[in-house]
């Protein structure tokens, strides 16, 4: 197996663990000839190279990711990563603290929107758990 193939396999495993098999399968199914190279890059580099590094655990990486997504206003990705943060072991209270910290450094309007999105996603995840 080549180094790129190893990175892709490691990235795919982490991506599935963090975002869920269902999300990764949907992304793969939606890939086109145009977007496939981007999916490959994300899987190999973001997930296979960065998320697999030993310097930070997944909980910490999730907290950082939530903050970065609020900072940049990447709201769809924020919703996705709220679920990822829960899968990586962050409690609802810890997610709340990340968003409160974001309000101080990134602004109240951004944090206000992040809280609304996170609350909806956490309620959806809780309903999913109750129904399971």
Automatic annotation (TrEMBL):
<dbReference type="InterPro" id="IPR052512">
    <property type="entry name" value="4CMD/NDH-1_regulator"/>
</dbReference>
<dbReference type="InterPro" id="IPR029032">
    <property type="entry name" value="AhpD-like"/>
</dbReference>
<dbReference type="InterPro" id="IPR012788">
    <property type="entry name" value="Decarb_PcaC"/>
</dbReference>
<feature type="domain" description="Carboxymuconolactone decarboxylase-like">
    <location>
        <begin position="37"/>
        <end position="119"/>
    </location>
</feature>
<dbReference type="Pfam" id="PF02627">
    <property type="entry name" value="CMD"/>
</dbReference>
<dbReference type="InterPro" id="IPR003779">
    <property type="entry name" value="CMD-like"/>
</dbReference>
<protein>
    <submittedName>
        <fullName>4-carboxymuconolactone decarboxylase</fullName>
    </submittedName>
</protein>
<dbReference type="GO" id="GO:0051920">
    <property type="term" value="F:peroxiredoxin activity"/>
</dbReference>
């Amino acid at each position: 197996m080549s180094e790129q193939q190893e990175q892709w396999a490691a990235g795919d495993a982490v991506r599935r663990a963090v975002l869920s098999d269902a999300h990764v399968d949907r992304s793969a199914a939606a890939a086109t000839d145009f977007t496939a190279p981007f999916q490959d890059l994300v899987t190999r580099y973001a997930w296979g190279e960065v998320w697999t590094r030993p310097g930070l655990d997944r909980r910490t990486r999730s907290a950082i990711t939530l903050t970065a997504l609020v900072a940049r206003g990447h709201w769809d990705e924020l919703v996705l990563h709220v679920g990822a943060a829960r899968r990586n072991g962050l409690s609802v209270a810890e997610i709340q603290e990340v968003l409160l910290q974001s309000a101080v450094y990134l602004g109240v309007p951004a944090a206000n929107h992040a809280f609304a999105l996170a609350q909806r996603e956490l309620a959806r995840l809780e309903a999913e758990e109750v129904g399971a």
